[in-house]
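Much of our argument rests on the idea that a fold can be written as discrete symbols. The amino acid sequence and the backbone structure tokens for this protein are reproduced below:

___
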Amino acid sequence: MYIFFDPGEHTGWTKFDEKGDVIGGGTLNDLIETFNFLGELPVGDFKVIGYEIFALYPWKSEAQRWNQFITSQVIGTIRYVTHQGNQRGLNIQIVSQPANVMSMGYMYAGMNPPSNSNPLRHQLSAFAHGMYWLQKNGIRRPQQGRKN
């Protein structure tokens, strides 16, 4: 199986089976819920655990002053639980992707990106990251065109 995350204050996740079909997903609504989810994640079930990277862009740095950088905390936890699994002899690949691959993931899925007001947008972002990786690695074939 494969699982991909859109980390942040609201962390989206999507789980895929061996063929790349979606078998679960959701949105974790705060840091503690995310820590609990990741702490209970059966990491041995996954070949790949992926997430969207976080970067502090210079033009946004002033606006981020005094920020707790929850996204970085979530990424650190994802990396930690994956590392712990690998320390136990599991062979889990950790994948980090820039945000700009999501547009290709949506295209591969044959759908348009959600609006910022869509309550499922974080889960769908995780889905798009998964679709991108799964297609690029030959596990899924892309859909033909976008659906409106």
